Amino acid sequence: MIKLMKGNEALAEAAIRAGADAYFGYPITPQSEVLEYLAREAEKRTGMVVLQAESEVASINMVYGAAGTGKKVWTSSSSPGISLMQEGISYIASAELPCLIVNVQRGGPGLGTIQPAQSDYFQSVKGGGHGDYHMIVIAPATVQEMSDFVKLSFELAFKYRNPVMILTDGALGQMMEKVEFFEQQERTTEKLDWATVGKPTDRDHNVITSLHIKPDKMEEINIHLQKKYRLIEENEIRFEEIMCEDADYIITAFGLVARICTKAAELAREKGIKVGVFRPISLYPFPYEKIKSHSSKIKGILDVEMNAGQMIEDVKLSVNGKVPVEFYGRMGGIVPAPDEILEALEKYIEGGKL
Amino acid sequence: MSIDTLDRIETKVFERPTSLIDTEMHYCPGCGHGTAHRLIAEVIDEMGIVEETIGVAPVGCSVFAYNYIGVDFSEAAHGRASAVATGIKRVLPEKYVFSYQGDGDLAAIGTGETIHTCNRGENILIIFINNGIYGMTGGQMAPTTLPNMKSTTSPFGRDTKSMGYPLKITELVAQLPGTYYVTRQSVHKPLNVRRTKKAIQKGFEYQKLNKGTSFIEIVSNCPSNWKMTPVESNKWLDENMLPYYPLGDIKVPNEKEA
Known about the structure:
heterodimer, A: alpha/beta, Rossmann fold, 2 domains, 13 helices, about 20% strand, B: about 260 residues
């Protein structure tokens, strides 16, 4: 089925089709269409539970409870709401519960703005809540991927018993594009040996917890989590390379910005500057090695983000000083245009910085 | 009668409920939690619903309830037990779900979740242990600490002018249309223990009938942080807690309907 649809609605439609069992959420601009769409469509089509909670704090804890039963559960919010969820996300990561959390980012800090931004990169990939943990974080660039990545997220969440975040922004959430949906999947629940579904006589009672009061046990849990994260880093790196083969310069960008940068690269090539775009799709795990592999063939990297420069730290770690890395960003809800990105690149080149 | 026969006589008058795990509890001597846990385990056993029950234990002394009551359990963040219970119940509506929460958890940090869970009439049982103090963190003032009662953070007694009044959250949730059965009990005397057990049983039974939220407050003691012997603490409970938190049903179902 091909439809013209808003990114937020595509998320909701995809979750229905992926056979999600429950959604718990709270309205916040610019992603309220998710809850609105589900309220209209979900229950009648698949019986998915859709509940408007009293807050994002309650939402994420409902997700925690429901995910503990082994059901396919998700929530979505935008930046300030995601901040409120951080404690719950830390508990979910520690208790190893599969679930999907979508952040349709808006400009911050504080109440900020309702316009798109990418300033929650650090929060999403570096922890966000307390303790050593990671979510798997993937960043769509099209409304098509808003749909595709919902299905992928549930697969990854259950494969690794780990929370997965789709990190997107208000522009992708609000804009309409053509999207081809995957087939409706049945709602099925696998029998999981760890889930709290009621204790049958042939097993011990299951406990979902992140509390291990003895430090040696807590260290054991941490070691286990870190092993899992290494496995994820080994297997789940995703990226897209656009015109990188012959490029002298590479622009690194994620999400929607990568598409704008692709236009900037095309404009640059018209002027004879060979520019490619490297787009990390998985932000955690980050494609460090892949970016590094380009560093011997290029003169420099321009990192472009809708923030003050966050992913650039991981890009710099990737190339480890081998090539210069410069930055161009807009903040507070401003989306950069292709010509200003090209202008920034040209200035760095002319100034001898790239 | 031979000695052999005597050995074989099995008239058990008291035994551990199957659902109460045979392990050492971390609760202090004389604390009411142990009795309350036992009652829950007894009711679960007697109703035969071990396989159908999921408990939620949030932060506080009662966080380790999952080590003692042998049903599937979810630990919850401080204050969030009723949200976690909501999540479980919504995806497993045919199961019995209960939360076991202290006063700090339910009536301070989790007030929002408590009110809204009850207001939605979530079909769960909330068991609320009110001992007027923060036990696990070492005796700080709770939302239910009595006026002039001393705690480590109200060392001169709770001054209601600056520290507010003890929150009668049970009366508050009884006002909400979502609650079906709201009662206040205690476990400090045998008669009260029996009444509390009856209340817990009703709570589970109403859940089976899909009636909405059952809310049982158990006024309890904290000998360690009240700095009393267990016997003194029960006497103090009688003389000080119960006048402020009177025992009895606050909201009872219409019997015909029930």
